[in-house]
Amino acid sequence: MHIVVCIKQVPDSAQIRVHPVTNTIMRQGVPTIINPYDLFALEEALRLRDRLGGTVTVVTMGPPTAEDSLRKALTYGADRAVLLTDRFFAGSDTLATSYALAAAIRRIGETFGPADLVFAGKQTIDGDTAQVGPGIAKRLGLLQLTYVSKLGAVDPDGRSIEVERRAEGGTQVLATRLPCLVTMLEGSNEMRRGTMADALRAAREPIVVWSAKDAGIEDIGKCGLRGSPTVVKRVFAPTARSEKAALIEVRPAARDTADALIDALFTRLPKLEAELIAAQTA
Amino acid sequence: MTEAKPQAAAAAPSRAGMKKELPEHFKAYRHVWVFVEVERGQVHPVSFELMGEGRKLADRLGVELAGVVLGPPGEATQAAVAECFAYGADLAYRVEDPLLADYRNEPFSKALTDLVNTYKPEILLLGATTLGRDLAGSVATTLLTGLTADCTELAVDQDGSLAATRPTFGGSLLCTIYTLNFRPQMATVRPRVMAMPERRERPIGRVVTHPLGLVEDDIVTKILSFLPDRDAGTSNLAYADVVVAGGMGLGAAENFQLVRALARTIGAEFGCSRPVVQKGWMPSDRQIGQTGKTIRPKLYIAAGISGAIQHRVGVEGADLIVAINTDRNAPIFDFAHVGLVADAIRLLPALTDAFARRLSPHNRDKLAG
Ligand SMILES: Cc1cc2nc3c(=O)[nH]c(=O)nc-3n(C[C@H](O)[C@H](O)[C@H](O)COP(=O)(O)OP(=O)(O)OC[C@H]3O[C@@H](n4cnc5c(N)ncnc54)[C@H](O)[C@@H]3O)c2cc1C
Ligand SMILES: Nc1ncnc2c1ncn2[C@@H]1O[C@H](COP(=O)(O)O)[C@@H](O)[C@H]1O
């Protein structure tokens, strides 16, 4: 069984810096982590490998410093790490990102054996679109299972997989064929503590580093800003309400203030008091 | 290596520049579409919210608004088509096929992609639900067009482009995204972000039907069963009239009892900010904001919440926002209607008492009599 897991290195803090000219996010100087949602995908992949045998390859597209996240993934027990890095990728939106990652996954298959399963996180905490997973699936012609809360039977020989998928108002139990792409829901498992042996191996293990060309990408025009149909035109701070609320300083033990406040609320929402009372008697 | 060939009749050019001129073959793309999500016979309310928004965009552009209904033959699909018109659509596109009875990516993305390639809309809106996001991601990739997720504001700018605004990484910024050189311009919007438009009984108008063109054997993924949520409806946060929420300012898990107590007293739902969920102080279905629930209550009481943009966009639809915060410079006071500079740990119990007295049987009778 060969499982590929897409992980993204994301900034750890809510500190925001936006490039004044290109309006893209500047990541320098902010501490980074593996996108938390991707850890559920990675853990699920590791469990599957432990159960069925095989290897787990983690892949990321990012700057050379994304190597840190790949090494972290190796400490958890991933077998191999591929870093897709090239200045042509700068400014990629989800369509360009899925193009590059799909190419890399195809090349991973050619180099290390075809992938039976590709995992992605539900979404990233910086891009936050949940689009890259479906994008990769479509480009690779893989069946797509998103919002998976639980993996059921996986049969590498019979080429089948069963999953529970979160849907609106319930859970779908789905069966499909391998290879496919799965995006894992948060909370579906808990990331293991890596072993000492994996930590030692992670420090030494060579990372496979590929440029766009190495990954077999011929058309650079499909990458980065040029390959991105969406354009961020404006980044701005939200405006304050035009009539900014007067601030009421409330002293401790403010029973009177509470009463006065409730009077004020019910004056502004005249029907609310009757509705609340009606709801209580109902 | 070649890229998977787009099925789109109108394949996108291989290079996207920042140039403004729309390629000639995209000029035929006109009209605004809303994907109408039908789940087990029910239209998801987000589809009507989008219909309201789509109506405004269509009027601004001087084009038609269409609802897209994919479903099995039968009453539910018919009813969903009728609802499109009741919420303001000029026409509806309908694909009726037994294979569309339950959501699966393959038949739904084929149906929607075929419709787009045949009838060419300039704007396509979907709800950012598990279904909408699954579908939108595939369809946008097949069409090789832009998709902006989880928008909080949609507008048409001077040159007729869709300006899709969403919060961006970090705690305080919004960004406006355009799909300049590709069509359709696709966007998803989360439930409750847009106001529910008024429903008006209108006759069913023009309906365009289109075949699915698949048989069950073409579809690889099978649905083995559907397990409805047992606790469906217990947390009615998104649709509650009154919501009380707590943030990191409450300092400790046990202080969330104060939030629950006030909520119980006034018959409200309770919620929280994201770090509270991350701390494990509240379950994740109570999170309010960009990555949690969007709410539109009549009254929202936020205690110890700073008011970061990801929280703000989830609550801005509230009629009246009351914020309790010790820091008079907290960003939440920029959008609250009533700002209380106070220690929430002391003020919440005082408020609970005051509400309890006010809503007591004695007062109830006074109000009734
Ligand atoms: C991609 C992304 C998505 C996100 N999605 C969400 C989301 O869906 N929902 C969400 O809420 N956040 C979300 N966030 C996080 C958001 O940016 C903020 O970090 C978060 O909302 C802050 O939560 P808070 O206000 O509870 O905590 P803090 O920012 O720590 O604020 C605590 C506040 O409490 C006040 N305070 C302290 N003591 C008291 C007291 N005794 N009484 C009263 N007030 C007191 C402080 O003055 C402060 O204003 C997201 C962030 C990112 C990057
Ligand atoms: N640059 C990237 N490198 C590797 N995987 C990525 C990258 N961007 C997104 N992904 C994967 O796609 C998922 C969804 O990302 P997003 O569409 O940004 O919310 C993430 O959880 C990752 O698994």
Automatic annotation (TrEMBL), chain A:
Top-level taxon of the source organism? Bacteria
Question: Could you tell me one molecular function GO term of this UniProt entry?
Answer: electron transfer activity
Please name the SUPFAM superfamilies in this protein's record. Adenine nucleotide alpha hydrolases-like
Q: Which Gene3D superfamilies match?
A: HUPs (3.40.50.620)
| Electron transfer flavoprotein alpha/beta-subunit N-terminal domain: residues covered | 22-219
Q: Name one Pfam family in it.
A: ETF
What keywords does the record list, in alphabetical order? Electron transport, Transport
The protein's matches in InterPro entries, at most eight in alphabetical order, are given as: ET-Flavoprotein_bsu_CS, ETF_a/b_N, ETF_b, ETF_beta_N, Rossmann-like_a/b/a_fold
Record text on subunit structure and interactions? FixA and FixB form a heterodimer.
Any idea what job this protein has? May play a role in a redox process involved in nitrogen fixation.
Q: Would you identify the family this protein belongs to, as annotated?
A: Belongs to the ETF beta-subunit/FixA family.
Protein name (database record): Protein FixA
Q: Which organism is it from?
A: Prosthecodimorpha hirschii
Lineage at the top is:
Bacteria, Pseudomonadati, Pseudomonadota, Alphaproteobacteria, Hyphomicrobiales
UniProtKB/TrEMBL annotation, chain B:
Which Pfam families does the UniProt entry name for this protein? ETF, ETF_alpha
GO MF annotations in UniProt: electron transfer activity; flavin adenine dinucleotide binding
A GO biological process this protein is involved in?
fatty acid beta-oxidation using acyl-CoA dehydrogenase
Q: Which residues bind FAD?
A: 273-274, 287-291, 304-311, 325
InterPro entries the UniProt entry points to: DHS-like_NAD/FAD-binding_dom, ETF_a/b_N, ETF_a/FixB, ETF_alpha_N, ETF_asu_C, ETF_asu_C_CS, Rossmann-like_a/b/a_fold
- Names of the cofactor(s): FAD
UniProt signal peptide? none
User: Domain of life here?
Assistant: Bacteria
Q: CDD domains per the record? A: ETF_alpha
- List keywords of the entry alphabetically: Electron transport, FAD, Flavoprotein, Transport
Explain how, and how many, cofactor molecules are bound: Binds 1 FAD per dimer.
Annotated membrane-spanning segments are: none
Database matches in Gene3D superfamilies = HUPs, TPP-binding domain
- Residue ranges constituting the Electron transfer flavoprotein alpha/beta-subunit N-terminal domain according to the UniProt record: 32-223
In the record, the note on similarity to other proteins reads:
Belongs to the ETF alpha-subunit/FixB family.
The protein's name: Electron transfer flavoprotein subunit alpha
Q: Which organism is it from?
A: Prosthecodimorpha hirschii
